[in-house]
Amino acid sequence: MLEEDDEVSELLKMSNIMAVTRLRYNDHGITHARIVAGAALELLDILMKNNVMPTTLRDGTAKNTEEAKLVALLASYFHDIGNAVHRDRHEFIGALMAKDILDRLLPMLGFTDRRLIALRQEVMHTIYATEYNVRCLTVECGAVKVADGLDMAEGRARIPYRLGKLDMHALSAISIKAVEIEVGKERPIVIVVHMDEYAGVFQLEEVLVPKIKTSGIDNYVEVYIKSPSRHARFYP
C-alpha cells in the first residue's frame, strides 16, 4: 500500500532529489525506507522476545503487537519525507507532513476516530524523535531511530561518492561493508559493523551512537566492530 501510494512515492523521490542530488547526502529515498523498516521490525521483535513491552501497548494507544509494529513500519517509511522540503529540520517538517497522509491511509486499514488519532500521533512522535537530540519516548520510536542509524553500509554512500563528495562522512561510509543485527546474551540486541578501514568508526561516533543514546532503548543495545585488524566492543 505504501509503495503504491503516489504521494508517498513522490515524497520519497523528492527526498532523494533534495538530499542526494542537491546536497550530496546519502540515500534518503525508498531503498533507505525499506532498510529502516526491516531493521526496525527486527529490533522490535528481538526486544519483545526479551520481554520488553512496546510502549504503545503498555499505554493503550495500540491494542496489540501488530498495531505497535504498524507504528514502527509507518514511521520508518515516513521518517525522511521532510527532506522533500529541506534537509534542515526535516524531522520536524516530516512529522507535520505525515499528519494528512496518515489521516488518509489509516482508515484504509480500519482505523477511525480516536483509534486513528492515537496511532497517528505515535507515528508523528516517532518521525520527530529520529532527530539526534530528541529523546524517544516509546520503544517503537527507539527501534526506528536505531534502525535509521544502522543503514550506513557502503551502498548508501556510493552515489554521493561518485558525484565527488569526498568528506569524512562519505569516506567513512564507503569503509563500512555490512551491518548485522544479532541476538545478544548480556544485552538483547547486538550490532556488528564490518569495516575494511578504520575510517568507518567515524560513522559510529557521529551517526549510530548518538542515535542509540537518545533512543530510549540504549540499555538494550551493544555495538561491535569487525575489521581486518580489530574485533572489539565499541558501545557501551
What does this entry look like structurally?
This protein has 236 residues and is an alpha+beta fold. The chain has two domains: 6-148, Hypothetical protein af1432, CATH 1.10.3210; 150-235, no CATH class. The chain is built from ten helices and four strands; from the N terminus they run H-H-H-H-H-H-H-H-H-E-E-H-E-E. It has helices at residues 6-22, 30-49, 55-59, 65-78, 90-105, 113-128, 139-150, 154-162, 168-175, 201-213; strands at residues 176-183, 189-195, 221-227, 230-235. Strands 1-2-3-4 form a four-stranded mixed β-sheet. Strand 2, helix 10 (201-213) and strand 3 form a beta-alpha-beta unit. Helix 2 (30-49) packs antiparallel against helix 4, helix 2 packs across helix 7 (139-150) and helix 4 (65-78) crosses helix 6.
Determine the mean pLDDT.
92
- Per DSSP, the total helix count is 10
**Overall SS class:** alpha+beta
Order of helices and strands: HHHHHHHHHEEHEE
Strand order of the largest sheet: 1-2-3-4
Given the C-alpha coordinates, what overall shape results?
globular
Q: In the CATH hierarchy, what is the class of the largest domain?
A: Mainly Alpha
Number of domains: 2
Span between termini: 38 Å
